[in-house]
Amino acid sequence: MLRTLLGEMPRQNSGLLQEAMETMFQTIHLLHRKIEKDNDPSHDFRKLEIWTRGLVSSLDELEQSWYAACFFRKSVKAGYVDDMNIQEQSEYARYIYFYKNGFIRVFSILDKLGTVLDNLFDLQTSKVKVHYSYFTALRELHNLKQYDKLARELTGIKNDYQGPLNVLRKRRNTEIHYMNAEMQDDLWQRHQGLNGKIELEDLDKSLDDLKQGLDMVCKSLIAVFLYANEMWAKMG
Length: 236
Fold this sequence. Notes:
This is Cthe_2314 family HEPN domain-containing protein. Pfam families: HEPN_Cthe2314. The protein has helices at 2-5, 15-38, 44-73, 86-120, 134-144, 148-160, 162-178, 181-192, 203-234. It is an all-alpha fold. The chain has a domain at 63-221. α2 packs parallel to α9, α3 packs antiparallel against α4 (86-120) and α5 (134-144) packs antiparallel against α6. It is elongated and about 65 Å long.
């Protein structure tokens, strides 16, 4: 959708994004077959199908946010906020909008995946923490021991992306709980020299962190839904 609005060609899925999408669509297909076979009187499989479709949509929106942030970043040439003309300020504001939308969605998707994990494997994570995160559900998956292979794979993915995830988490928490994330850098610079110009953060580094977050999300989704698909296949 955003590519069309930006005058670009529609996206052709490839790489991790394509694999994640296809794995989740396979899950939806398996759930449909299960619902048709057993009528799903408890609506458990229907609920999982809706959650999976929601994750497909959320992943699509995350990738689009990253792409749009990259698109508008290209128009930001100045190294300081004070040196931007009106047009460049507008492009920078658009970059900020989609960049923030992206890093918020990284953790939104992970927490939705935590809910799926909790229900798929009956982790009962809410007994540990009522409003739990993906990372809490992952710890409970480890504690259960029954799905140790998946728990180890997901933990490995989390550890591989620990650096960029920490950066994105700090920005997400600042944005939601304290102040606009981009203004935290401005405030620090004001403390360093009240009369100095505000230097832009490293936009390329920020976008790379967001891309790493997108990749981490894709790999985690692939691991969970591939495991579920194989589990159901073995069960017939």
